[in-house]
Amino acid sequence: MHLTRDEESVLAGEEGGGRQKAMELLVALGDIFGAERLIPVKSAQVSGASFKTIGDAGIRWLEGMSEGTRASVPSMVNPLGLDIRRWRSMGISDEFHGKQARIVAAYMSMGLRPVYSCTPYLAGYRPRRGQHLAWAESSATVFANSYIGARTNREGGPSALASAIIGKSPEYGLHLDENRFPKVEVNLPSIPEGLVPLAGYLAGKAAGNRIPLITGQALAEDEHKSFGAAVAATGAVSMYVSDRTAGHRKASDIDRSMIEERVTISSHELKRCAEELSGGDEWDLVAIGCPHSSTRELAHMAKRLKNRRPKKDCDVWFCTSRRVHSSCPQHVATLRRFGNVLCDTCMVVAPIEEMYERTATNSGKAMVYLPTLGKQKASFRTTDQLMEAISR
Amino acid sequence: MSFLGGVDTSNGVVLDPESPLIGESVRGRILAFPFGIGSTVGSYAMYQLKLNKVAPRAIINQSAEPIVATGAIMSEIPMVDNIDISLIATGDRVAVNAADGTVELRDVTERHVVTSILRNRGRILILKRSDKVGSYRGSWAGVSGFVEKAETYEEAARREIVEETGLGKVRFSKMIPSRSFRDDDSVWTIHPFLFDVSSREVDIDWEHDAYAWIVPDELEEYPSVPGLHAVIKNLLEPTNL
């Protein structure tokens, strides 16, 4: 990889050990992927923030890196293992909280923004079309690439932190035009109510490591959020192309020359998938907000619940970003009657295995991670089914 | 190899039942494996090995990928990639120079050998190794022999052809990249050649006790030295220009 004189001097350690290590990471990854140079990024988004996922090794690494380094571009952080303000009401132990606090302190001392969310684009950091980013959260990466038209690879936690510190990323993969063409067409002629997340779940499986072209559906922004999160969870891909994303492109602008396969996912298959993922009917926890709920989604649920009473036969988490939370206090007040409205965290990275065994969710992505990372018996339900289940 | 779940971070012992290294400890040793797989959290597992003082001394990869490369940098473990790890065996004494990207096998000797396929009107010559040779007795092979000091590979190939077949008039057709394989404490590096000859009259010496001019498809009927099929296939492939 070609480095500028300034980059060479960072690599030689002339600006300290932390910046040197960050540069070593970017150069090593650039060499692996055949990048020719580093390019500036507008923002970074760092994963590896919950003590549950990175453990004691992660704390030590972040504390070491934080000595003498600062983020040089706006940089956000993925969800933590707890809500910073309401962790006791979640049932989090003092020990876990203490470990989590050290991680937060390390990120704060490096100047990362206290935005602990998988939806930084709803929390004040919305990129623009064409901008280069170094984002790590898979659902945010796929949203930025596919719906916004920004450009980012799916970074690992350490490489995203390195980009936050250096302000650059190696130019390879989805930063380059030639790697942003769809290779498989996934046609979705009709999606039953509430099953958009499962359309993503199946589309990701069909795509594998190929960028899919999604046809047949004009999804709303929130639907892109939940669809893309599931695509990135079941597929090894951080982008899809949609032929009907309003304002972004005309169908005739899409280059189909590299399409090598076409598949159709029928409404029948989506219903069957919902059945297969339905699990049991009794739950310890209903977990909503993977990815973090938008204001519109909180409003929709508040409306559904408004004239009903809580059933209280299981715990309920509505997970969102702090920014969205503070944007709609009335909806939050309504939802709070039915459960916990949590910020900074979610059911995927919180230590839910220490508190629950059976969890229901409306998220295709969470259906991938709840059984593995969360050791849960997981049940998929649509949002409206869950609102029905938690109220009377 | 996956470091997340594949290695016990408390003692460095390989846990993965799929790994040929299961039960071995990576602690303080040079760890060679093809490439890393699994979750990106694997980088942190490597760092945990380092904190617990049970990390490998160095890492050798066939091809580097982001998880292991990231973990190696976080943990300050020297790492070299683009190495043919099939040439390295568990228990070898290995020297790694991560600055140069080189690996040295201290107790292993590399032996350079030429092997030539002679071709005449669509048939190729194979020879059956006699009981008097040092290796692969009774196996069928091309015209093969050690490269001597101060000799180019082509000179060695031509010398062996004269010695083993008596054919003096040969026309060079093709040389393909060498290939290496490990056998005990040797690495054999084979340099394959293809020559055209105008005669099928062969005068074999003590190293062989039979020969045959065959069409390439018949090769499967002859028990042959390791790698001969692949060498012949590659030599006879049309060259892409």
Offer a quick outline of the entry.
The complex is a heterodimer of chains A (392) and B (241). Chain A is an alpha/beta fold.
- CATH architecture assignment name of the largest domain in chain A: 2-Layer Sandwich
Task: Provide a count of the helices of chain A.
Answer: 15
Please give the radius of gyration of chain A in angstroms: 21 Å
Structural class of chain B: alpha+beta
Low-confidence stretches of chain A: none
- For CATH, the homologous superfamily of the largest domain in chain B is named as Nucleoside Triphosphate Pyrophosphohydrolase
Write a structural description.
The complex is a heterodimer of chains A (392) and B (241). With 392 residues, chain A is of the alpha/beta class. Chain A folds into 3 domains: 5-177, Aconitase, domain 3 (2-Layer Sandwich); 181-275, no CATH class; 279-389, 2-Layer Sandwich (Aconitase, domain 3), CATH 3.30.499.10. Helices cover 39% and strands 14% of the residues of chain A. Chain A has helices spanning 5-11, 17-33, 51-65, 87-90, 94-109, 138-148, 157-166, 196-207, 221-234, 267-276, 295-305, 322-327, 329-336, 364-369, 383-389, and strands spanning 38-40, 44-46, 75-77, 134-135, 168-170, 184-187, 212-215, 241-242, 261-264, 285-293, 315-320, 340-343, 358-361, 377-380. In chain A, the strands form 4 sheets. Chain A has a 5-stranded parallel beta sheet. In chain A, α2 (17-33) crosses α7 and α6 crosses α9 (221-234). Chain A is globular. Chain A starts with a helix and ends with a helix. With 241 residues, chain B is α+β, with helices and mostly antiparallel strands. Chain B folds into 2 domains: 30-105, Phosphohistidine domain (Glucose Oxidase, domain 1), CATH 3.50.30.10; 109-236, Nucleoside Triphosphate Pyrophosphohydrolase (Alpha-Beta Complex). In chain B, strands 6, 7, 8, 9, 10, 11, 12 and 13 form an 8-stranded mixed beta sheet that branches. In chain B, α1 packs parallel to α2 (66-75). The model of chain B has no long low-confidence stretch (mean pLDDT 93). The chains are: A alpha/beta (392), B alpha+beta (241). The A-B interface holds A 21, 24-25, 28-29, 32, 47-48, 53-58, 60-61, 156-159 and B 9, 40-41, 43-45, 47-48, 51, 64-67, 69-70, 73-74.
